[in-house]
Amino acid sequence: MIDLRHEGATAVLTLMRRERGNALGLELVEALIGAVEACIADPAVHTLAITADGDDFCTGFDLGGFKLPDGAAELAALDGALLWRFVRIEHLLSLLWHAPLRTVAVAHGRAFGAGADLFAACDLRLAAPGTQWRFPGAAFGIVLGTRRLGEQVGTDRALAWVTTGALIPIDEALAQGLATGLVPDGGWRRQLAPLSVGRPAYAALRAAARSDRRNADLAALVRSAMQPGLARRIAAYRDALRRPPPASAGD
Predict the structure, then answer these.
(1) What CATH number is attached to the domain comprising 137?
(2) Which residues span the membrane (predicted)?
(3) Which of 69, 140, 147, 154 is most buried by a 10 A CB count?
(4) Domain for residue 13, yes or no?
């Protein structure tokens, strides 16, 4: 599901679920967590770049095979399983946000939902022409990544994007600071300037620039996900995506 290779002191981590738009299923999330933790533990790695195979960077939370069960007990169990999946995604995002090395996201195609949060959690956020973002988690009551997004683009802008689920084109992403650079497909390596400080100094500078709110971020996610009916809210959101848009008055 992933490919991890080293190019000198840069580790390149590639999502390899192109048939699912690199959507974040449980196994992919666990593989990503393991890879990020391995890079953090390796003192020879000073930069971690996240790329993706296929047409899209990451289309978000994987809803493949998702369906509502009939029984109340089964529905409650599904709510719990979904909560656990979101907790693990939050852990992945937190690892990237606080990693003691330079992190780089290289997006193309769609970066939606948790995939957009994955992009926003990195230091350098590079994108190919035509990339699009969307942050729809609030549509099913999930608070995931909003504070971190606010630190990148400003609180007001982050709230507007999250609460409307707006489609964000590349020009807006660049103008608002969501994307930090525009790169042609495969050309991102040329935008990585060599670091002038060692990894310990970079880690110290990064920590000084960011307040540590890991516990608060996790608590906000859990409180939002524990509201009754998580599975039903996700099902309603999925069904709304499947419905065709209403016809205009002139049709």
Answers:
(1) 3.90.226.10
(2) none
(3) 140
(4) yes
Q: Which two tokens stand for residue 160?
A: 């507007």
Of 209, 193, 229, the C-alpha closest to 148 is 209
Q: What is the DSSP letter of 168?
A: B
Residue 223: inside a domain, yes or no?
A: no
Spell out the per-residue pLDDT of the chain, length 251, in tens: 999 999 999 999 999 999 999 999 999 999 999 999 999 999 999 999 999 999 999 999 998 888 888 898 998 999 999 999 999 999 999 999 999 999 999 999 999 999 999 999 999 999 999 999 999 888 888 889 889 999 999 999 999 999 999 999 999 999 999 999 999 877 899 888 888 899 999 999 988 888 889 999 999 999 888 888 889 988 888 887 776 555 544 44
Separation between Cα atoms, residue 16 and residue 208, nearest integer Å: 34
Distance CA(136)–CA(63), nearest Å, equals 14
The boundaries of the domain holding residue 155 are 2-208
71 Cβ neighbours under 8 A, 6+ residues apart = none
237 within a domain of the structure (yes/no): no
Domain count within the chain? 1
